[in-house]
Amino acid sequence: MSSVLYDAPGPRAKRRNVFISVIFFALLALLVWFVWDAMNEKNQLEWALWKPFTESQAWTTYLLPGLADTLRAAALAMVIALPLGAVFGIARLSDHLWVRLPAAWVVEFFRAIPVLLLMLFANEAYDRWANLTTEQRQLYAVVTGLVLYNASVLAEVVRAGILALPKGQSEAAKAIGLRKGQTMRIVLLPQAVTAMLPAIVSQLVVIVKDTALGGVMIGFTELLSTRGTLAAAYGNPIASFVVVAIIYIVLNFILTSFASWLEKRLRRSKKSTGAVLSAEDMEELNPAATGGTFGTGAGGSI
Amino acid sequence: MFDFLSDYNNPTLLGAFWMTVKLTVISGLGSLIWGTLLAAMRVSPVPLMRGFGTAYVNIVRNIPLTVIIIFTSLGLADVFGVTMGASDFQVRGFRLAILGLVAYTAAFVCEAIRSGINTVPLGQAEAARAIGLTFSQTLRLIILPQAFRAVIGPLANVLIALTKNTTVAAAIGVAEAAYLMKGMIEKEAQVLLIGAVFAFGFVVLTLPTGLLLGWLSKRLAVKR
């Protein structure tokens, strides 16, 4: 065990560790018992409240349609935000000040604003100035909010991805006489997109989590809001929260694992330049490292 | 043009943003404490504590904040009667929102601090031991000063994200900025103006924080 914080334990440290483990285990057990007791007291442990989740009706009527809407909104948002983010990310790397500056303003502006505000605004704007059915309006409002925010986050991902490539790539492109647009299109972007894939997949986790906002605040029928109707039908608030939380955890865990598998694979591959942008790089993506303006500087992984 | 703003006094525009600031500061401090404890568990030599820290972070990070905040109201308060000593609905919502925000944000604080400790090269601790420093001296004089300086940038990002995340408290009726905006935008005609006012408010809140802490993290970064 090599840690910067402590040595490999000797006999005394081992005894102490066992002692601390026992106390910590007792505390955890106490906590579990306390929660269990509280649930029991409020009759939340009765099988009748949990039974619906073992039958198909609760899933086909409530949870699966909700999950489908969550995934639909997330997928739409990602598909629209990605090209938009690429455009702004490349614009921020432009040689011309009049392209670079406005792009930077737009990106910093939308990163500084909460997604919820964007959703509320889009919802109201569609309600007043567009002729949509309620379901359409809710879906569009959620997707619009998610696209505006995530496109600006992805713009930073794209920018960081291009900057992470070795300098020799663009120098070699210049040496063989490619123009700026060609260098970007043929040499830099394809490699950057590969390097960015893990970061893009982890951004999907953020998008999936943010769809829940649309459910509560503008009535979009995604997983969290179908939980409300389900709990009203079966009278099981706690059980439904637990099941919905597990669905989110499993879904996001799959996405996160996929991202880290992708990252490992890309790092191993011989073809790449070795530049890979992981989720953790994105969290630490501060302006100091990428030489950008000091703005709201969040990698956007929360 | 801004006449309609004076029609709102529960809360007023400034009152709503003041609520956002209060939510941010209090849950920021709370999650810093809880997050540091979690990080200490995650790097501790006791396997059970490491396991608990890892499990907490991985579970909480993957649940949407909205689910957590709604659960504090519909689950904790309504079913289990956890009102955090508040009789007033507004105060109850405020305290529950802070509870939810702390529980959620601490997972990210923990990861930021852990990554800060990981930036300190192993050689630093080995060199410290080689010159005969004790464990607490190594930690106090060598490791933590370097780790804290590396952590400012990531923590600033968490703080900015927290500022934006406080809007989720509107979902349980806390009268903060997003809550006021939702009420206003439905009633008034000047949709664009209202959007701009609230957007400006958040830019004012987040931009200086980012600038200041970004400058600080660059200034204090350990040059390697």
Task: Characterise this structure.
The complex is a heterodimer of chains A (302) and B (224). Chain A has 302 residues and is mainly alpha-helical. Chain A has helices at residues 11-41, 47-50, 56-91, 97-112, 115-129, 134-163, 167-175, 180-217, 223-234, 237-268, 279-283, 287-290. Chain A has 2 domains: 1-41; 49-290, MetI-like (MetI-like fold), CATH 1.10.3720.10. The two termini of chain A are 31 Å apart. Chain B is mainly α and 224 residues long. Chain B is 75% helix and 0% strand. Chain B is built from 8 helices and no strands. Chain B has helices spanning 13-42, 47-61, 65-77, 89-118, 122-130, 135-165, 177-187, 191-220. The longest helix of chain B has 31 residues, at 135-165. Chains A and B meet through helix 1, helix 4, helix 5, helix 8 and helix 10 of A and helix 2, helix 3, helix 4, helix 5 and helix 6 of B.
> Describe the biggest sheet of chain B?
none
How are helices and strands ordered from N to C of chain B? Answer: HHHHHHHH
Query: What count of helical segments of chain A does DSSP give?
Result: 12
Terminal residue distance of chain B: 54 Å
Which architecture of chain B per CATH?
Orthogonal Bundle
Rounded mean pLDDT of chain B is 90
CATH superfamily of chain B: MetI-like
Under CATH at level 1, the class of chain B stands as Mainly Alpha
First-to-last CA distance of chain A: 31 Å
**What quaternary form is this?**
heterodimer
**What percentage of amino acids of chain A are in beta strands?**
under 5%
Q: Briefly note the structural class of the backbone of chain B.
A: mainly alpha
Chain-wise SSE layout:
The complex is a heterodimer of chains A (302) and B (224).
Chain A: H1 11-41, H2 47-50, H3 56-91, H4 97-112, H5 115-129, H6 134-163, H7 167-175, H8 180-217, H9 223-234, H10 237-268, H11 279-283, H12 287-290
Chain B: H1 13-42, H2 47-61, H3 65-77, H4 89-118, H5 122-130, H6 135-165, H7 177-187, H8 191-220
